[in-house]
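To whoever picks this up:

The parser on our side crashed when reading a file containing two proteins. I've narrowed it down to the boundary between the first structure block and the second sequence. Both blocks are reproduced below exactly, byte for byte. First block:
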Amino acid sequence: MNTNDPDLDKQSDLPAEVDCENALSVSANPLQHGTWTMSLHREGVWAEVEIFAGFSEAKESFSCYTTRYRALDNGGRHGQLKLIISSAFEEAEVVHIDSAIQDGKWHDLVYLNAVRTDFTFADLRFVFVYNRGIWWTWLTLDGDFRIHYEPSPPVVYPNPNFASSPILVSCSGVPGALVEIFRGEEKIGFEYVNADGSCTVPITVTSNVSTLSFKARQEYRHRYSKITEVFTTRRSKITFPENNSVLLVKDIVFTGTAAPDTQIKVVSDSNHYDDWGGVVTVPLTEVWQMRMTKVPRSGPAAVKAQIKYGALPHFYSTVVNFFVLGSPRITAPAVSSIQDRTFTLKGDNGLSGFNSGVEVFLDSEMVGSGAVGAAGIWEVQVTLKPGNHSLAVEQIASGKRTERGAPRAFKIRPARIDDIKVEIIEKSITFSGTGYPGATVVITVQGWQVTLPQPVVAVDGKWEIKATDLPLGKLPTSILQKVSDNASGWIESLPYNFEINNSLPDVYAVSSTDDYQPTFSGKGFTGATVRLFNPGGGSQAAPEVVVRNGEWQSKASQQWGPTLNREVHIKQFLDRHQSLNWVKHPVTIPPQAPTIDLPVEDGLSPTFSGTCWPNALVNIAFNDDPAPYNATGTAGIWTFRRPTEFKHDITYTITVSQTVATQTSTVTTKSFTVLRSMITPVITHPSEESDVGHELVIKGSGGMKGATMQVRDVVYDKNLSASQVLSSDGDWEVLVRSLNLRSYGIEALQSDKNRVSKSKRLNFNVVVLPPQITQPTAGGKLPRTAKLKGLGRPGARVQVWVVGATKPWLEDIVVRADGQWECEAASPVGVKNIRALQSFEEDGTQHHSRFTDAVQYSVVPAAPFVETPVAGQLIGQRVVVSGFGVPGDTVKVKLGAVQASATVMADRTWSMNLVLTQTGGMHSLEVTSALDEFESEAAQRPVVLGTFVPSIDIPAAGRRVENPLLFAGRGRTGVGEIVSWYDPDQKWLADVPVTGNGWRGQAATPLSLGGQWVRFSQTLAGGNEGSHSAWVISPRFEVEPAIPGKAGL
């Protein structure tokens, strides 16, 4: 019987074993009835009925509802089933049937009945009369069950948080029942359940209680329910800030405690809609934090926490009062206003009543401080340097310092410039004075369109500015200084105003060019007219010109040519003003250097010419000739041909000057080379209208050493090759690649020192040339299955034809990028005659070559495979050579004059005996295959021939021996070994010394029982038999089991 806190009585005098599975105390809650399976057992017979039953407070009754039954299987016979319920007031039958099926299976049994109760207990009697089926004998199984009434525990609706005492616990229960609250064993609260089933129990706690754990039960009609689970509620409060604390805004992070998953909102005490930080959910640690999102003004503050858990109504924590210490705010002067260096800064958002003060900062420098007055108002006098400055203020109270408040920028203007000096020299004017270091000085002159440069005051406070082209007359002037506002603007001081008196100066800095028609220039007063006269003023030497930007320039009215110290008189005029003096300017023009043209080719004595001044004396010199030469210029042209010849391909220099009006010009020098005559190149290969491939070596004659040769496509007017420098005279070659399949007309261009000679045009056709067959060679051999190889055009496809055939033997063989092709093919033995062609696709068109010349070769058997002896094997003078080949072929083995042959069998094997007469040592067997007269290349098999034959004397023939075996025999000086007769890798005796007296040794491992043979071989020291002896095999002997007490061989 499985139970969960059952209160189920059994009658001690029941005739059958009674069991009630899943029997529970029934709850007073009408929705919490119990389901039981009541079982009866007796003399190996059993029966069960399943019921649903419980108490109902509303109807003051106990009801029972049967659902199904089953009994021990005995062929489906029918028994009798009866269930009766009773209370202190009455009894009732729930079910009574005479046809209860006995087959071991569950059957539905739907019956219901109830009895009135006094809420103490109810009894159930279950009777099953079992039909045994044996002469209609019956067995009665019956049992009684009692169920006590117990009210259900009250339903507690816990709030995991509380703010203050008393704590109100909401719950529901049986109307009229008494709900009791316990802390441990201590009753701390109670209240009766209302008619609607609701109940609120107050619990008083002291102020130091932060967590309360409690449980509950209810009592109804002197029956107690079970105790509920333990519930825990926590005091929810704000732990930071503390009451009456002074806090910086940045330090205000609200902290508190509450139950996990509680939602917390911090609000103003006076306005619950004034949110100070959003909503946070309490973590498992039960400690929550919330950064303040509101920026309050400095002063007192009062907040509380709004506490909400799940769907429960929210409530509020106790109030926390504290003082906010915020960053001060600047209220005056206005943002970006212009201020003198010393001014008063005003602001608010101070914290009054805490001996608070403010400090004003320019970057990291404190520039002023003051006390906070009533209502948080403050004033501070500051002194700043000129410029655009941003001030910020910090507040100090209760030992704490705020962050800086919002900065405010001000434009601090420099002082007015008063100490000014003005100096006018000729056309220039210089202003100077003192100012604020780093400031820019601005000078404005009324009636002067020129914008003066703006000088920067030096570190020592000095500044100076020079200007030219100042207007004539009396000019009102204003000077101020300004500093940058760091925003592409300026902060200006108050101006200083005064007057300038200026007159028109003389021209100056006059100069002239030494051109034959000189150009005069100088400096003057902008806007004035400069006039240039010949001496005496009767005529102008050059057109008058207006001064622009302080400068003027005028070209002489006519060409002067070479001259010496000729004067020009100059003065400037402006409106009614003129300069005081005529400025005299002397002009000297030396003759210019004559020019030299490229010499006119005339063999090895070319003609030189150039330009000069008419009738000038021209002086000529050559670097290879010390003698000076002269020529006279006629109409401005000079010519000269030296009487002595020059050598070709050597660089010379000619130097020329001219003399006019007692002045000699500078010299002109030019390098020149007398060149040999160009040779016309001749193309000798390919021949006219010949067919060529896509890569071609153009050959020719008539080359000149050091010249460059290049081949051009005359049809498409483009280069077919790069320029190639010739290393010798005479024959030349140029490689051209990637020619298209078409007709070409080409010419060769030979270039030397900017001279070009062309060959005659040559025409040829670019076609797909026949491929080459490199394997087989004419008259050569290839095995039945072999690779054919050759050369062709990369990317082309090769076909191989048997001469006389009507279709290709091999085709679609691709030529690789390296120009090679190959293909594996199989042929019968005999003579074969082949040829090949190739095709290449260009621009979607297939181009085919001609056939190659025929190549005749022999298809022969492949060299046979030699299985034994293996390479390097030691053999005797009688040796069996065997291997594999093609059935029907004849294999021939040869060593010197000794040879033997055998036909390859149908299973592809062959073997033969060979008796050798050579001396011992290293030899190579030559093995070939042949079919008719066609013979393969020879396969070489290196072997070691041993001609010396040692002996095995012990064990003797037919001798019966036991392990371990002793071996002995005769031989020559060396080292020997005994091996298995069928496995040379199985060594019975290794590295046994051999002397003139023979050899002897004991087997290293036991031999198998039964008939045995062994083999022996040794190395040889000296003699003409080679380095190893022949293998010798022992006579047969018998290995027997060891017999105790037997000794010897």
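<<boundary where parser fails>>
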Amino acid sequence: MVATPWTLLRLMDECENAEKASSSDEVFIPTTTIELLTSEECVSDILKERNCQNQDALKKRIYDEKCPAKIIFLILARAGKLDRIGQFLSNGFSDHHLPIELLWTREGYKFKSAKDSNWTAAPFGTGIDYNDVDYFIQKQWPFLAPIFEREFEYVLQQKIPLPLVKKGTPIVSGFSSVSEIEMHPAHVPEQTEHSMAMKKMELESEDQIKYVKKEMANVTSLRLLDHDHLVKAILACTRGQQALFFFPWAKGGDLYNFLKTNSTEGMAAIIWMLDQMVGLCSALSLLADKGYRHGDLKPANILLFPEKSGSCRLKITDVGLSKLHILATSRRLNGTTAKATTRRYSPPEFDLLFDDDGEPVEDSDDIKLSRKFDIWSLGCVFIEFLIWAKLGRQKYKEFDKSMKRDRRFWDSAREDLDIKVKERIQSLEDSIKDTPCDKAVQRILTLVLEQMLLVNSDDRTRASDIYKELKIIRDSYGECLQPRNVIDLPLGLTAEQAAESDHRQDGQGLPDGMDGTSRSAPEQSGTQNNGLSTTAVPSGNTAAMAYVSEALAPLPKRRNADGESDFATYRMYQSAKLLNQWTVSPDNEFAQKFFSKTTHPSPAYRGQLCDSCSKLRIWEPDATISGIMRDFGARASACNLCNLLYAVSQRIGLHEDHKLNCVRNGPTLNLNGHEGPPILSLFSDPAFNAHDLGSVQVGYPTLSPPESPERYRLFQEWLHVCDNEHSHRRDASPGGCAVPMPTRLIHVGESSEHLKDIKDSGFLRYLALSHCWGGSTSLSTLTSNIDKFRSEIPHEQLPLNFQEAIRVTRALEIPYLWIDSLCIIQDDPEDWRREATRMGQVFSNAYCTIAATSAATSNEGFLTPKLNSTLSATLETPGGSLLQISEFMEDCNRDVESAPLNTRGWVMQERALSRRTLHFTKTQVYWECGNGLHCERLFKLSNPQSALFADSDFPKAILKHYKGGRITLFQNLYERYSRLNFSYNSDRPVAILGLEKHLSAVLQTRGEFGVFEQYLARSLLWSRPENIFLNSITFKGDHHVPSWSWMAYEGPITYTNIPFDKVEWSTDCLLQYGEKTGTNIMRTVLKAVARDLKLDKLDMHDRVKLDEGSGFEPSNLRGVVLGKDKKRESRVQVHYVLLVTLPEDELEQAKVYVRVGVAWLLEHNIAMDGEDVVIY
């Protein structure tokens, strides 16, 4: 039988039928249909029907594995644009780019794709007009429904459809709704329940968005809690302004509706109730033991799941979403339903967050609730359970109605806070009779009233103890009870064993220790995850990319009782003076002196302004500029300021119909207020009296030509002021000691240069070049040419960076220059080793350092800026001064900190130890000395963390800080260094030797391998960031770096954020220098007391961070306790632990261990006794 040929009409019908097959409001085309419509037969038939050119080439391109275009083919076919497919695909456009967005600017169309989140040029060929692309964008969405595989968390773009074939009527509660849904079976893994509950939260405020980001981590971690009375989430994602959580569908509904609609059956109801109470309390005990609080326990959040026996099991849902529920109540979001139901079951301390009018008395960020919050709420649930089981459904409905009026389980006279549990609840005792099950009810009621519903949260009993009491009550009346199901807990523990373990659950929170601002990288390939993951159709389309830590800013998994991560709590202890933030201020004292000594041609007056801009009074301190981007564009040709504002609006990513708002903030105009980023700079012409302009910068927005006399005069003035006013230059004999000179220097001369051996030459003034080695250096000193170079270095063979450095040295009238590749013999290992250890000394003793900051290779050059904004506008003030406005160019993070040079490992030491540095960046030159960072346009720029690099006598500036500040600074320094790049990773411990020696001397402690003896515990408590694993470095020869040093690994580190003065540091770990190893080599080791650890699966996930990933069984790990929290009444003691293990090739009796990670453990995780060990 001959198959029916495919036609375009048939393809369109198939798409339409597939969309109509879904009874949900999600319009999508399943992957099964997509596979059918992109079969070779279908594609060939339709290309032939539409007479497309180069059909064989097109088919090859459509099925290209690396650059597929199956979905593009379907979108264009459905849009009736197949005649344009060749143009769409001619420039590498593929399914990996989908979805795309379109933006019109005066420069043309800009596109944003899944492959590149920035607005860029079109990812497809030319010759396609706006209508073609706009229609393509409209038609793309139904084809992009995600396929959920083995990951758990996702980020979806707002218009991406979910693969739902059915969706029931949503049940709305507060700011969320729950619907029964059914996923298309081809879009979920096999054996996944297609029927699920979808909880949708509309994220209408920044607070909601912030807390969804935080709680995502909780929900993920809680999936490891395998308890029969906890509902485990199947999938979580954000889609635009929505947060979506998917759970198993509870066919029995929730406990609240069950109690209202089901009649009791006497003793059977009580028996079942007792069983479920024990199970619910066991689940709450496990949650508390693992450091979690539910925060919204109520019958509506307890679901019924039918079992094969015909009974139902109660399970707690919404675990991990507590902060969102509390936030909804405190902010009075979406009406009163959520507020009333949450407050009904909330303890007295929660109600005190509201005033008499029901308004929150403090910001939701400051909500502080104990984990015993849940004990009160569960007691309220038990009361309602008892009413239903003992008094019947009708009495429960009457009670429910009365509680809707009164809302709470307790009374309070707010003026004297006389709080007591409602008398009507206590009167339940009157209904109790003298049967075995009634005695059980009596004991439960007494337990609830005397141990759970207590006004003072500290008086409430822990969940584990409530569980034990309930179990005793249940078992005491065993003759009334039927056989029960066993409650399974993680790692084979029964409920009894879990509750009998030494729970530490009444604390106010547990430190995470897992640093979320390290700005972690996405999870690397190969990392195992047993959740769900996604691929769009076809695989590789990132329209529905799997959730990674960068998508929702990575945050710690654990939360403290305040609802905030402990990382945030710990940061509060850090000095606000050490924020990593740049500020801009004018440096007019220097500017006025400089312009008084030199002539600088004033730029041409650019006073062409439109009527709107002529009315602006930017010279006033509180001036503002606002307007629609499109209007600026319309006036740009006739107005210099509108032209500038339009260009700036484009650069910051505004759309044509967006409004630009900026506010005067001293010498800058900042976007959307004083706290926003600066986008425009203000200058006062030095030729005029600028007193009426306030704090604007004296000078010009334009830069002098790259090698002009004016530019070199500025460099000389910076040096002159620094020499004579700041005293930052190196003295010839500080303290009467001779300054050690480099072994060799380049004598630049007037027209030629040669190497000079420096022996007894005394003090010499020289510059040092800091540069990237990227690319071929073309010329370097070798044993074969050093004699020749002593006579003359062939200038024309030097890389461009070296030639330009020589020109700068001559222009500044300095006789000598040091360049590593010319002053160190590159093929002489002994010379290299000796000079490498002296590298810090070379830069510290240099008169000044030339930093080729913008150049990624030796041949790139650095003198000419690559970016130079020429747009400016000039306004005349009422006082006759000229105020010039230009684009803000002083982006220090871009120009200096993130520039190619400062990503290299060797350069940090060079920069830190240099007394002064001229940074040649891609926009302008920055001058860095002990007085701060200054730019060529004469602004002064300040950043507390970067100030350490400007210290002309590094690191004495650290002494201005107390102990906590000193620790923060050296930890920031090492964290930053660990993120830098090396051509040879084995250089990692060498390239920082000089810096480490200086730090040790100033801190007056011994330091080695990134560890300071005085701060030993904090130095050792480093770890990898989330989702990044370290790789150990292989060192050659007898060079050894111990396992407890981060220098032994490749990859970034972060330090545990531990509050200052809140920890008792242990003496169980000491540094031992010159310890003889098994090979008779003297090494620095740790001598410590190692203890056995008790760790389960969740502990390994939440409390342990292994340096190089998984591969260690908990039984193989031992712990060295470095410190523990000081005792506080309301907090568990967290122990800060170094994890060690015996290497596979190590003899057991030798007891020589290696570090494998760090952990944040509780007392019950750690054995009391330990033994002395050595750690290499």
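After patching the parser it read the second block fine. Residues 709-855+892-953 form one domain. The chain has six domains: 8-144, 149-249+524-534+541-554, 254-500, 583-698, 709-855+892-953, 1015-1175.
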